[in-house]
Write a structure and sequence with these properties.
The complex is a heterodimer of chains A (about 425) and B (about 200).
Chain A lengths: L21 H6 L4 H7 L3 H11 L11 H9 L5 E6 L8 H8 L1 H15 L3 E6 L4 H17 L14 E6 L9 H8 L24 E5 H5 L1 H7 L1 H5 L2 E2 L2 E2 L1 E8 L5 E6 L5 H6 L13 E6 L18 H6 L8 E6 L4 H15 L5 H19 L6 H12 L15 H4 L1 H10 L1 H10 L6
Chain B lengths: L5 H11 L9 H12 L4 H11 L3 H8 L13 E6 L2 H4 L3 H12 L12 E6 L11 E3 L2 E2 L5 H12 L26 H20 L1
Parallel strand pairs in B: 1-2
Antiparallel strand pairs in B: 1-3, 3-4
Helix pairs in contact in B: 1-2, 2-3, 3-4
The chains are: A alpha/beta (about 425), B alpha+beta (about 200).
Chain lengths: ~425, ~200
């Protein structure tokens, strides 16, 4: 049975059709957290976030409080919000920016106050045309309301927030690439070290980059205290999380559930959540955490949805996306489409990623569409090993950013779990599913 | 003489004013150019270069990196069909084939009447309503061929002007005013906050 008792922290307004309006936001406690935060010292606000043990909700799962404290050594210049949600099958930030933009804006103002930053940028995917409208509207209303601009709510803190549209590039979800795009350049990830924009970020100055969902948690944390947040979930995975469930399930969608207290089976099968696999088919595989993540077979359905729990089994909770494949889904076709995506989105700076993704895509294409050879199976692994040596998880790094080593995950998983399906493709001459 | 019409030129100048560096306005300005022309013309890129303090070559080099920017003319409606994993599992490839046949244009092409261009997209982050179709970056949420055909009929009849506006993802995005906090004020606030924090730390 799914555990559904936890409060909705970031999706509390999901049943209101006008959840994005200022009037609804104010009627449901909106901007009270900001008033409370402004009555605290900035380091007290940061301490609450630290106490919450809030893990970043973008994909890497780095503790937000630690990210901030690394910066407290130097004075930070800019806060940048990463709303470039592009990891395939991830759509929870899309929900947040369209349906609760004020909650995001309030979170950004709270974070800016804690960090003592006076200029913040919200970078939103260019394809979110309605999301861009809603967030800009929320910013306009926040200025009007006195929650943004000079001397917020009569305090000594002033802040401007600028909305910045992306223009269609998966790689811009990588924070240094996002910063390049924000500087008006091609979205090429920057060489590391420095590993964090905290050292050298926007315009070469110390910068914090946080995800939309991470920011959206802050109003609740300030109002209820970091300890209350940390009391939810278990271990390092505190609070609730938005999971984006997609693929062969009856009720795909975004669900906010308590961390660790639910399993993959709960999320996929509970009638109040995923509602089971379409037509009661058998589940074949799960892709947890986005297409960069290694897959699980049905034997791990009872694994808890927690960051460390999933990591211990060799994958990641990543971006909070979960894709379900059923017995009729072709795993070769699925893995081919995923590597085609990486091939298309590789920025081209590093050879293993640029050349490797295209080569893998061509092999997967011929296995699926005709002309695959039995030696292709070993060739796939050999090539994958060149991109991410050892094919371990987390992967070894041969490239500037983590896009490259993420490429082999789906192919390696599909081959390990369903080698017979690949052999059937070779024997049949193309996809046996037709 | 500005290539951008007066209203867009004014919005462009306001956008430039929001950033510490003019070049940062590159992507929003290119979106504005597409709002006017549907794609990026040579004249438009020259104007963006002038506004951002770059060269037309740098503008083109930047624009060509991003999928949303068109360097050639496109139809009045750009239809994007996602075939990435979540949509593939819900009939995205079949939808793409259907859309291509119905609109009479191949992926990457434009229909003869100039009304439609077709793109096979990567994930558009709306996987709960798959397969995902966008028209001019508006989610039309037509998950069956019949629903798509119905939507196209409405589009042709001009009944979707509200739901599917013309090009430009910022066409209805308007910031109410420029930056409110000037750099001197920021410097002063930071100095006093720094002093207050130092005092607290000493206690």
């Amino acid at each position: 049975m799914a555990s559904l008792d936890a409060p909705r922290i970031v999706s509390s307004r999901r049943d209101y059709p006008d959840s994005f309006s200022l009037s609804r936001y104010l009627a449901t406690g909106g901007y009270e957290a900001l008033r409370a935060a402004l009555g605290m010292h900035p380091e007290q606000v940061a301490a609450e976030v630290d106490a919450a043990s809030l893990l970043g909700r973008g994909g890497a799962g780095f503790p937000a409080g630690r990210k901030w404290s690394m910066l407290r050594k130097s004075e930070i210049s800019y806060l940048v919000v990463n709303g470039d949600e592009s990891e395939p099958a991830t759509f929870k930030d899309h929900y947040l920016v369209e349906r609760d933009p004020h909650q995001l804006v309030e979170g950004v103002i709270i974070a800016a106050y804690a960090l003592q930053v006076n200029r913040a940028f919200i970078f939103l995917r260019g394809e979110f045309a309605l999301g861009l409208e809603r967030v800009q509207q929320a910013l306009n209303e926040a200025y009007e309301h006195g929650a943004l601009g000079r001397k917020i709510f009569g305090s000594d803190f002033s802040l401007d927030v600028v909305l910045h549209p992306g223009a269609g590039a998966y790689i811009c979800g990588e924070e240094t690439s996002l910063i390049e795009a924000l500087e008006g350049k091609r979205g090429f990830p920057r060489i590391k070290p420095p590993f964090f924009p905290a050292v050298t970020g926007l315009y070469g100055e110390p910068t914090v980059v946080n995800n939309v969902e991470t920011m959206s948690n802050l109003p609740w944390i300030v109002l209820n205290g970091g300890a209350a947040f940390a009391a939810l979930g278990a271990g390092r995975s505190t609070g609730t999380r938005l999971f984006a469930l997609a693929g062969r399930v009856n009720n795909p969608g975004v669900y906010e559930i308590e961390m660790v207290k639910n399993t993959f089976r709960d999320l996929i099968y509970d009638p109040a959540l995923g509602g089971g696999v379409i037509e009661n088919k058998a589940l074949k595989a799960i892709i947890p955490g986005g297409v960069s993540a290694p897959w699980f077979g049905p034997d791990l359905l009872d694994l808890a949805l927690g960051q460390d729990e999933v990591a211990e089994k060799g994958s990641m909770l990543g971006s909070g996306s979960i894709v379900v494949l059923d017995e009729d889904s072709c795993v070769v076709r699925a893995a081919w489409r995923i590597v085609k995506f990486f091939s298309r989105e590789s920025c081209g700076q590093c050879t293993p990623c640029r050349e490797g993704s295209g080569w893998l895509e061509r092999i997967m294409y011929r296995l699926e569409h005709g002309g695959g050879r039995s030696e292709d199976l070993d060739l796939l692994l050999d090539l994958s090993d060149n991109i991410a040596p050892g094919l371990t998880w987390p992967p070894q790094q041969t490239t500037i950013c983590v896009l490259g080593p993420s490429i082999p995950s789906s192919i390696h998983s599909a081959l390990s779990l369903f080698r017979d399906d690949f052999v059937a493709h070779v024997d049949h001459g193309s996809c046996p599913h037709g | 003489m500005s290539h951008l019409r007066a209203e867009l030129r004014q919005r462009a100048e306001e956008l430039v004013g929001l950033y510490p560096s003019r070049r940062s306005a590159m992507l929003p300005l290119l979106h504005l150019c597409q709002e006017q022309d549907g794609y990026l013309t040579e004249d438009a890129m020259a104007e963006v270069a002038e506004l951002t303090g770059t060269t037309p070559a740098e503008v083109r080099g930047t624009a060509s990196f991003y999928d949303m920017f068109h360097l050639e003319p496109v139809g009045r409606y750009v239809v994007g069909v996602c075939t990435n994993i979540a949509c593939q599992l819900r009939g995205g490839e079949e939808m793409l084939a259907h859309v291509s046949a119905v609109l009479g244009c191949a992926v990457g092409g434009t229909s003869e009447d100039g009304l439609f261009s077709l793109e096979e997209t990567e994930c558009l982050a709306d996987c709960g309503v798959a397969p995902v179709v966008q028209v001019n970056h508006r989610y039309v949420r037509t998950t069956s061929p019949e629903a798509f055909d119905q939507m196209v009929a409405e589009l042709r009849a001009g009944r979707l002007e509200h739901d599917v506006p013309s090009h430009g993802t910022l066409i209805r995005v308007r910031r109410s005013g420029g930056l409110r906090v000037d750099p001197e004020e920021i410097a002063a606030e930071r100095a006093s906050a720094r002093a207050a924090r130092a005092a607290r730390q000493e206690q």
